[in-house]
Amino acid sequence: MDAADSVSMLGAAWEALTILADPMRLGVLCLAAFLGVVLGIVPGIGGLAGTALLLPFTFAMDPYTAFAFLLGLGATTSTGDPIPAILFGVPGGAGSAATVLDGLPMAKRGEAGRALSAAYMSSLMGGLFGALLLGISVPILRPVMLYIGTPEMLAISILGLSMVAALSSSTPLRGLAAAAIGVMISMIGSEPRTGAFRWTFESLYLWEGLPLVPLTLGLFALPELCDMMISRHSLKGKPIQNVNLGIWQGAKDCFTEWWLILRCSWIGTALGAIPGIGGSVVDWVAYAHAARTVKGGRQTFGKGDVRGVIASESSNNAKEGGSLITTIAFGIPGSAGMAIILGAFLSQGLVPGPDMLTKNLPITYSMVWSIAIANIIGAGLCYAFSPQFARLATLRYTLVLPVVVCIIFIGAYEGSRQWGDLVALLIFGLAGWTMKRLRWPRAPLILGVVLGDIIERQLFISIRLYGADWLLHPMVVVILCVAALGILRPVISALLDRDRSWDLNLQLPKFSPGDTFPVILLAAMAFLFWETAGWSWSTALVPQIVTGVAFVAVLGSLGNAVFRRGISARSPLDEAKAEASQAIHMDLIEENEGMAISEILRRALAFLGWLLGFLLSMGTIGIIPTIPLFVVGFMRFEGKERWNLVVPMAIGVTLFVYLVFDQLLTMNWPVTWIGQAFPALRVIPSV
Amino acid sequence: MKLKKFATAATIALSTAFLSTSAGAQTVEEFYSDNNLTLMVSAAPGGGADLYARAFAPFLSKHLPGNPNVVIANVPGAGGLTAAAQLQNSAPRDGTAIAALQRNNLYLPLVSAEKLAFDPREVNWIGSLNKESYVLITWENAPVKTLDDLFSQPLTIGSTSFNNENRTFPAMINEYLGSKMDIIPGYKGNDEIALAMERGEVQGRAVTTTSLLGGNDASWLAEGKLNVIAQLAMRPSPAVKDVPMILDKVTDPKARSVFEFMFLPLDAGRPFAAPPEVPEDRLAALRAAFEAAAEDPGFIAEVAKQNATVEMIAGDEVHKILDELYATSPDVLDQVKGLLVSK
Prior knowledge:
The complex is a heterodimer.
Chain A: H1 3-20, H2 23-41, H3 46-54, H4 63-80, H5 82-88, H6 97-108, H7 112-137, H8 141-147, H9 150-162, H10 164-167, H11 172-187, E1 189-190, E2 197-198, H12 212-231, H13 243-256, H14 258-272, H15 278-293, H16 297-300, H17 306-330, H18 336-347, H19 354-357, H20 361-392, H21 397-413, H22 419-437, H23 443-466, H24 474-498, H25 516-531, H26 537-564, H27 572-579, H28 597-621, H29 623-639, H30 643-664, H31 673-677
Antiparallel strand pairs in A: 1-2
Helix pairs in contact in A: 1-20, 2-4, 2-20, 3-4, 3-18, 4-7, 4-17, 4-18, 4-20, 5-6, 5-7, 6-7, 6-17, 7-13, 7-14, 7-17, 7-20, 9-23, 9-24, 11-23, 11-26, 12-21, 12-22, 12-28, 14-15, 14-17, 15-17, 17-18, 17-20, 21-29, 21-30, 25-26, 26-27, 28-29, 29-30
Chain B: H1 2-25, H2 28-34, E1 37-41, H3 47-63, E2 70-74, H4 81-89, E3 97-100, H5 104-111, E4 124-128, E5 134-139, H6 147-150, E6 155-158, H7 165-177, E7 181-184, H8 190-198, E8 204-208, H9 209-213, H10 215-222, E9 226-232, H11 253-263, E10 271-274, H12 280-294, H13 297-305, E11 313-314, H14 315-326, H15 330-340
Parallel strand pairs in B: 1-2, 1-3, 6-7
Antiparallel strand pairs in B: 3-10, 4-10, 4-11, 5-8, 5-9
């Protein structure tokens, strides 16, 4: 780049800033940032529904204002995301699932204020860094992207998947099994090469695969809520730390860890730029990276280490800048939210591509500024309300649970707005809770789901185009070596650790009730493998391989547990430990000391009963009439709350859902039985 | 299952009773000023189809008596079939719900091996906003530069998925005209193929004329970076009138029937439909409002801003296309199934 170019670049950046400084545009940006934070806090909704709804309003705006509005909203949802993740263990969006792992334990220790503050500050720094990186790289975007072909993308996806090794460090076999099962889930649906339907079981719902939202909420949110019900309090009754002190401490943590934030922002921006990977796994990749590289991380991550929150959140906000890269330079949206931004390009008559980097450079830079400014406003808003948020964590579970359950149902339904979403939510909720209790890491499953079919797709394209030669592309070689190193390092260290007792040390088989879970998995996999029988080879190849891998891994883990149980261990906790080294289990742990297993199961079943009751009622009389019934029922039967608390609560939640989801977001509710039977009753909302 | 059947029967009985009384009592204008009109969009938010529908909604409201609030509800899934099945089976049949469907919904139920809960002849088509046509393009340095090259030179082209026209059309040309295109499926979206073409991974692709004339393809075309090899459509498009028609190469009558079956649905590029049993007066009002809205200069200007065009066809013309598709002889259908259904 010569001097004249860099002057014109700076000129364009300056021009964009002065255009944005117009009070009207700044006002719109503030409004968007506010909406974004609010939407981010509501689990599952994210910015997607909101942005889609507001898109038509931008038709009448000029491009600067329109993009300020849409990007401001999109960029700040990930600032609001960590709030429910830290307070209730319910990720506000797929991108903050990793925040739960350390944020929730911190809140349980009474450090909610510190965790929240660290989340906002790292979000802010990550967001700014992502914007900066985007701003600097504008001139080289296209040449770089043109150099990265499908094989290179494939290598990067494989690198992402290799993070499974770090995320399942204490239970490698179970991690591998979870990842393989995740890949199996990603295979569901219509396969692009032959149009064959894989594992769809004649259900239209599964044609395009399982949506990610109900899956994430099921795996991570429902288990937390269920355990809240089992332990009968929202967070441990420890005295809450001074909130203001915590806020100061959290911000200070971020400044101390600036180098970590910088690295995680890099990861966020780079992965955000890869279409399909988008926001769904950056947090896990950054988290795995941090756990592996920071001092003592392998011992403290997952137990309330503030650096876990920082890693996850900084990468989560930085991805916005990254996913804008491909959108601007090639019109390929990096994420679902970007698909809507792309819609705004079309409606503004702008063509993503070379023009955006020459003729329309000021517009491109106005986008960079919008993201940066929105991040500052978003973090400011969050700080302003922090004391209130932190207090939420101390509420009784009978107050928190009914509200959050209602919102999660709606959030999951946002996935594809079909009954199947709710069924998927419950199934994955059950699986998630079982996995959490029996110490199976859940994060590898998400990585498998997101990356599985991308890897398959890119693999077949690469092989069709280059044969085996794609493996020789220089960038591919480098990236794959990094991935291999990541996978092998923990394996080698685990083997070395074990060296002392490297006899197999098998005992007589000893079974426990927890073994039913792997046995069910094995049976399910055998069935799914049998299903692949009639498929053509290119359709069946990858599913058969991953099913085989999952089968062997589950079998290995089961064998390990059954034959080693006699040595020392009795509880599932000790089994997980017995499986491998001293490295910690990178997932949440629920202890319930002193509670009988029968009591735990009884309370879990009661929770499942409430959820099923909700669905049944929703199918019969519609969601909006169901909500007050559910809230009243739950609060009266579970908590014996006073009526003067129950009634306002029920009315409040119902009104909130009615106004926000029915009126504002115009959700298309599922058809109900009484609505079908008595069409006259359809005047009632959601019937 | 029994319960479901009972529920369906009860629904139909009750709704017919309910509708026949209310429809008589209310004028169309009264009805729509009291009710919202839900427009189901068979695609996810963002993207061409959604954007088009969102731009259209206010104009539909403007031209419908009673000016109801037109509410967009995205019902993505199964290439539009999720929305289509919902429209036919569970959407209210009083005229408060319509859907923007996709053109594959017109013919996939006819050839699909899967059991589908949608029959395009059961619903009431309101019209279509756009006629589509395809062209085959190659990058400047590709060995295939003209239609004749196509039959002598190899060509690698990118496509999205098995059932997408960007794969089925080239596959059909390979099958019946003996070209040797290597079709690579699996790219996510048209822009990803465009990028693959620009960086030299693939050498060409089949693309809609709308896309060729808007977006990056348009500037590449102007710079001479693209060769437009052939038009894949029933009729020549005025915008690329010098480009040869692929149909001129098709001599075998049976092959021609297959080509026509595949090209015919393009005329109903963005079809809209209402559920079965919508009261006659409301259906007529919906169709009239659809036509008026599609011709509204405000809407045309809005769409022009998006580099797209409006070529409205009325509801009865969509039904005509359907009749023609469903009159296809069984042996031609078998050929089509060979192209559309995985073996």
